[in-house]
Write a structure and sequence with these properties.
This protein is mainly alpha-helical. The protein contains 7 helices and 5 strands. The longest helix is centred in the N-terminal third of the chain and has 23 residues. It is globular, with a radius of gyration of 20 Å.
C-alpha cells in the first residue's frame, strides 16, 4: 500500500494519531534549519549586482509598496512587513523620498500618521530590479528543489504565515 502524504500539514497516513506534536528539540532544529536556509539564500541574492544600484532593504520597501491595493499605505502598516525598526524605516523612507522613489503625505484618516506611495520612477525601478531579482531567486532555488518540493515548501511557509496572521 502506498503511503499518502498530506503536504499541507506534513503528516502521513502512517503517523501515530496519538502524537502530541513536535518536541521542543525538533521545533528548535526546524527553526534553525529554516533560518540558516534563509540566511544562505539571502547571502547569494545580496551578491546580485542589481543591488549595487539600490540596497536590498530599500528594494524591499519598494516591493511592499507595490502590494498596496490603493497605492498608498501607512508607514506603520508597511513596517509590519519588514524586519527593521520604525525609526530605521522612517530614515530609509526619507532616503527613498530624496531619491524620488516614494512620496509621503499626511494620512487621510489621521493627520498624525504618514502614508507612502511609489512614484512613477520608484515603480519603474522596482519592476526592473524585481525582474532581475526573481530570476536570481530561480537560479538559487531551482537547482536544489523540484517543482513539487517548492510547492511543499510554499504550502508549509504559507501555513506558518497564516497562523501568525501575516
Amino acid at each position: 500500500m502506498a503511503e499518502q502524504v498530506d503536504t499541507t500539514i506534513g503528516r502521513t497516513d502512517q503517523d501515530d494519531p496519538s502524537d502530541t506534536g513536535p518536541s521542543v528539540r525538533q521545533s528548535s532544529e526546524t527553526w534553525e534549519s529554516l533560518f540558516r536556509a534563509q540566511v544562505g539564500v539571502m547571502r547569494r541574492i545580496r551578491m546580485d549586482p542589481v543591488f549595487r544600484e539600490l540596497p536590498i532593504g530599500e528594494y524591499d520597501v519598494l516591493f511592499n509598496l507595490t502590494r498596496c491595493p490603493t497605492g498608498w499605505t501607512r508607514l506603520n502598516e508597511l513596517n509590519h512587513h519588514l524586519l527593521i525598526s520604525q525609526p530605521s524605516l522612517s530614515r530609509m523612507v526619507d532616503r527613498l523620498e530624496a531619491k524620488g522613489l516614494v512620496v509621503k503625505r499626511p494620512a487621510q484618516t489621521d493627520q498624525r500618521g504618514v502614508e507612502l506611495a511609489l512614484t512613477d520612477e520608484g515603480r519603474a525601478l522596482q519592476r526592473r530590479i524585481g525582474s532581475t531579482h526573481v530570476h536570481r531567486i530561480q537560479e538559487v532555488l531551482a537547482p536544489v528543489l523540484s517543482t513539487t518540493e517548492m510547492e511543499q515548501l510554499k504550502a508549509l511557509t504559507d501555513k506558518i504565515n497564516a497562523h501568525l496572521g501575516d
